[in-house]
Fold this sequence. Notes:
Layout: H1 15-19, E1 27-29, H2 32-41, E2 45-50, H3 55-65, H4 68-77, E3 79-84, H5 89-103, E4 110-114, E5 120-124, H6 138-151, H7 153-170, H8 181-194, H9 211-224, H10 227-242, E6 256-257, E7 265-266, E8 269-270, H11 271-288, H12 291-307, E9 318-319, E10 322-323, E11 326-327, H13 335-342, H14 344-353, H15 382-389, H16 393-411, E12 419-420, E13 423-424, H17 425-442, H18 445-461, E14 463-464, E15 467-473, E16 476-480, H19 483-500, H20 503-520, E17 521-522, E18 527-528, H21 553-568, H22 571-583, H23 585-590, H24 596-606, E19 610-616, H25 621-632, E20 638-644, E21 669-674, E22 677-678, H26 685-689
Parallel strand pairs: 1-3, 2-3, 19-20
Antiparallel strand pairs: 2-4, 4-5, 6-7, 8-9, 9-12, 10-11, 13-15, 14-15, 15-16, 17-18, 19-21, 21-22
Amino acid sequence: MTHKEPNRLIHEKSPYLLQHAYNPVDWYPWGEEAFLKAREEDKPIFLSIGYSTCHWCHVMEKESFEDFEVAELMNKIFVCIKVDREERPDIDGIYMTTCQVMTGGGGWPLTIIMTPDKKPFFAGTYIPKERFYGRIGLMDLIPRIQELWTNRKEDVLHTAHELTEALQRLEIKEPGEELNEDTLRTGYKQLLERFDWKYGGFSRSPKFPTPHNLFFLLRYWQKIDDVTAMEMIEKTLQFMRLGGIYDHIGFGFHRYSTDERWFLPHFEKMLYDQALVAMVYTEAFQATGKDEYGRTAREIFSYVLRDMTSQEGGFYSAEDADSEGEEGKFYLWSEEEILKILGREEGEIFIKVFNVEKGGNFREEATGEKMGRNILYLKKPLYEVALTLNISENSLRERIEKSREKLFKEREKRIHPHKDDKILTDWNGLMIAALSKGAQVFDDLVYLEAAKKCTGFILEKMYNRGRLLHRYRDGQSAITGNIDDYAFFIWGLLELYETDFDVEYLKKALELNETLIKYFWHEEEGAFYFTPHDGESLIIRQKEIYDGAIPSGNSVSMLNLLRLGRITGNLDYEQKVRYMGKTFSREVKQVPIAHTQLMVSLDFALSHSYEVVIAGDINSNDTKEILRTLRKHFLPAKIIIFRSNTVESPVTDIAEFTKNLTSIDNKATVYVCSNYTCNMPVTDKDKMLELFIL
């Protein structure tokens, strides 16, 4: 039941907070008004953290936050605060750590009960209204909290104080030994031990794409020439693309698979997944030359450019798992529907290829019964399916594509899942990086223009007085940028520079990197805080290094610093990388598998890396041919600088070592430098390749 009068969330921009604006719970947004009320009325705070495309957040809202009985109790006992974890990852990070420390696990919705000075004393995730199979319900929990707060407040405050001190101690980093090749080998062994040789991936269930695992393995494969590493990469990428985790009709990847074979997805789609997964398929295409990987990357880009791009050029955050109150409904098909849309002959081929069952292959979560609806998936690659059907692979692809287009057109008539249309700087930075890399590898100007338009949007709308803002929606930019905003956007700028060599992108990357150092760097411990020195005061100030669903800002910053250091010759950047490695050394060495993006950076630092300078005319055919040749090959441990053959080439002010690296006879000329030494210049693309260890 919906409350007629809105609460304070009605004035917010976050789609998640607006979803709760008509709850009978008297929600406050995070802010001083709520904390002042809690202090004045001597009430504990009920903090609920989630995000708009979170299925169990919707369940808890419907069960409890829309329930007048629960709301009356919450309003009486607590000051209630709602937080969108995507808007405030700093708050989410602190209280998710709290939940993990207190319960051994975490997830969303995240439920925290804390004192008016923000110190937690209870943590949980989804809580039903009533007790359910041993899980406490809100109707039991809230009176218990009231009793504790009324009769044993000193004990509660003592517990909250001790827990907060314990959380603060976790943030003190004891430096260890410098990371080295042994760390890379240990990380590889841990991935090997966890690998699922039947279906790919590094867990049983649930199964997440975790692209940075594959980024690392690609580099390890290249460094060691390890066939097993490539087998792990390819099996994972192939089974992900075959499974129901991939949207075979509209493209793009769902959040994760609930089973070990990538069949049954949690249907939400996140922008960061599209960016990172597209990048790893792009790199796999470079490394193997196999069209299936390039095709998948391009399909992901098609989905993002079609469905996740604002008119202004920014990229939206996510699409929900649910539509019409039901998870996955938008994506499921009955055999009858398919035959009706495609006709008998075309439909039967499609049904056979995508394993559609008359009774359905999708089971209802509540009952476990099949309801006649199907998740589309492949049991084997199309070339194998074509053999069983006794037709050519190209012929089958053409038929499937025609069928897909018809089904897509029909699916567009359905009620779509909710789209979270806020624009986040950090996730947009990842998408800029992915599209720029795609533009390089696939020689596609559409991707380049999309990356440039998004970059222009962020610099116009989400950049103020030299500082990045985190969120834009409905004409308003807000929330101080965190490390991820800087690190991921700098990553995007570096990839964009290496795509069209506009030196302004390089200048902006350097400028933002200096801002990051000024406001986030911890000189004593040698790492970046998640929040800036002048940010909001929270109970702890975190330094994140764990590479979870997305890489940590520190891991990405390490690679950014290395790349910028090689471009500018600024040795302070590389020194900071060494400090960071030592700061996080103990936890990384213990579990390298949890820090695979950091190991990508470490691999760059330890590799036989290259500084490639191309001197010439950016529009000439020989320059374009040189770039095409370079981009065909997987060469991650390199930076590329373009120096125009004019005397006043602007890049020479940034990369001074390029001043005397000029073109020969007005031809595109390549200088390949490694280990602080430059080889003799070459103008032939084949001779250029001989200068790399391929």
